[in-house]
Write a structure and sequence with these properties.
The longest helix is centred in the middle third of the chain and has 9 residues. The chain is built from 3 helices and 2 strands. The protein starts with a helix and ends with a helix. The protein has one domain. The chain is elongated, with a radius of gyration of 12 Å. The protein is of the alpha+beta class.
Length: about 55
């Protein structure tokens, strides 16, 4: 089981599936304290996020 301490120490990564209305803000919030991997089936969403939009 992963603990909050492991996430803060960046010993593990947080993965979020779906970068829509809920996933994107969650990824941003977790990203302030942890390494985050985001996954979405929409290539357009991924490209926009990589360009810093959306």
């Amino acid at each position: 089981m992963v603990t909050a301490e492991q996430i803060r120490a960046k010993e593990v990564k947080v993965a979020l599936v779906g970068l829509g209305y809920v996933g994107r803000p969650l990824a941003a919030a977790f990203g302030r304290k942890a390494d985050v991997i985001g996954l979405d089936i929409s290539a357009k969403k991924i490209e926009e996020r990589l360009r810093g939009r959306g």
